[in-house]
Amino acid sequence: MKAGITSEKIIILDFGSQYTQLIARRIREAGVYSEILPHETSLKRIIEMNASGVIMSGGPESVNTKKALKFDPKLLDSNIPVLGICYGMQTMAKHFGGIVSSSDKREFGNAVLKVNKGLIFSGLSTKTKDLNVWMSHGDKVTNLPKGFKKIGSSNNSAIAAFENIKLKKYGFQFHPEVTHTNQGQKILKTFVKDICGCSGKWRPKNIVDSLIQDIKSQVGDKKVLLGISGGVDSSVVAALLSKAIGKNLECIFVDNGLLRKGEAEQVKKDLKRGLKLNINFSDSEKLFLKNLKGESDPEKKRKIIGKTFIDVFLKETKKLKNISFLAQGTIYPDVIESSGIKNGKAHIIKSHHNVGGLPSYLKLPLVEPLTSLFKDEVRKIGKELGLPDYLINRHPFPGPGLAVRTLGEIKKERLEILRAADFIFMEELNSHNLYDKVSQAFAVFLPIKSVGVVGDARRYEYVIALRAAETTDFMTANAAKLDHEFLNLLSDRIINEIPQVSRVVYDISSKPPATIEWE
User: Fold this and answer.
1) What are the boundaries of each domain within the chain?
2) Could you tell me the CA-to-CA distances from 56 to 38, 69, 287, 332, 497 in Å, in that order?
3) For domain 412-506, which architecture applies?
């Protein structure tokens, strides 16, 4: 990206927290570019990158063990503003001579922070004395480092926040990046704007201009082939490519037989109306279902779909002339969940069909303009590009489609059952004006059977699970609190209208510990 848009940057050192990506998202939400680097990154490297400030993330280890993750101590002795969160705070405390001890009781979940006057809390309401925050730790700071001031405490942590204004060093035992922390974004904004001195250049228009320039620089006057699904990610990539290279963009829509009811036809209509692109359509349902036959392992299903997807593209590419690049709508969370943070300590959650593992015989270099963006950032630049709301605001749909919402082996009969249930769910969400009030909703086919009674007859058929999530970033999410009468309506319709279903359940799991998708 152009230097101007990233000239102000906050470096996040990853100590293994599952929230590390969320910290990056929150900093960008404040209008400042953020980048994640390994915890051992040297001060020299940070200075070379012209960092305006550094955030040390949380992590699963203890600073008091031999497994304690190393960092460059010169960082904390430098004049660069540093904020330590959870493990980062404990690391900072120990470096400056404080004491970190194990808690008798692990503090996890909601807590009340007693707020004292502090520079980093200057953006909070003047009436704020008690702040609802999110805790997740086993160790805590028990002795304050010399020169530091305690600015917050909780029932379990007498020193839950501290600062040293002269050294520009700050620490929180709580997590300001999660939505469960009230006014957490205000706190982070104070750090990046008031303490680090960033003005906020990371804005949709600037991002769009920079991405288009990046595409032009990479592609030149050569042709690019894009697989387009009708989802927001591939639609935004199509719009960016169209603006950058015009007629040198070739699009292919692959109907893999794993789409929702009527989706292939709807995608054709939406893309023609919204993007005015010439799109080649490939009906590949039989090939995908053939390759998936007999496989029930979710990771293997994703890999099969990814390989088949690439095979179809290679076949379709041969029909087109002078294709030099393959474009994909891969976004940042896809990359993170597939491989963990590069050189970091986050655990691999699941593979994504279009991330990594590309076959060696694929000769086309990739164009992936969205790999540094989160989902809501993609939506914002889509709006900046002029895409219609019905494309931008569609709920996310996974690349592997219904294959990761059909647990167990993929069979056409099971897909048809799931399509029918999902269609009813979407229809009722829309008719009750709930679709735009939840972030993502879908049905899941469970390969188990349950006894039911329809009329006076026994029914022993499959189970459908319904999932509706509320989130702002898709890194954390809560189950939507749908009205019980509405859920009863859904259950009645699905069981009465789909003879192969005898039971409907509603998923109330949050992320974490669950993921939004079931596989």
Assistant:
1) 7-195, 204-392, 412-506
2) 10, 11, 47, 20, 53
3) 2-Layer Sandwich (3.30)
86 carries an active-site annotation: yes
| Whether the predicted pLDDT of 348 surpasses 50 | no
Least confident of 14-28, 63-77, 268-282, 368-382: 268-282
pLDDT for residue 455: 73
Architecture of domain 204-392: 3-Layer(aba) Sandwich (3.40)
Residue among 86, 196, 198, 251 flagged as catalytic? 86
CA dihedral 281, 286, 292, 293 (to 10 degrees): 170
The CA distances from residue 116 to 109, 113, 119, 185, in Å, are 21, 9, 10, 18
Closest CA to 142 of 95, 84, 103, 88: 103
Predicted pLDDT of residue 3: 61
**Which of the following is catalytic: 8, 39, 61, 175?**
175
Q: Whole-angstrom Cα distance, residue 507 to residue 401?
A: 19
Domains 7-195 and 204-392 share a fold: yes
Write down the pTM of the prediction.
0.74
Name the class of domain 7-195: alpha beta
The helix or strand, by DSSP H or E, that contains position 113, with its residue range, turns out to be strand 99-115
Catalytic residue among 29, 107, 177, 428: 177
CA dihedral 452, 453, 459, 465 (to 10 degrees): -40
175: annotated active-site residue? yes
Contact status, residue 215 vs residue 367, Cβ threshold 8 Å: yes
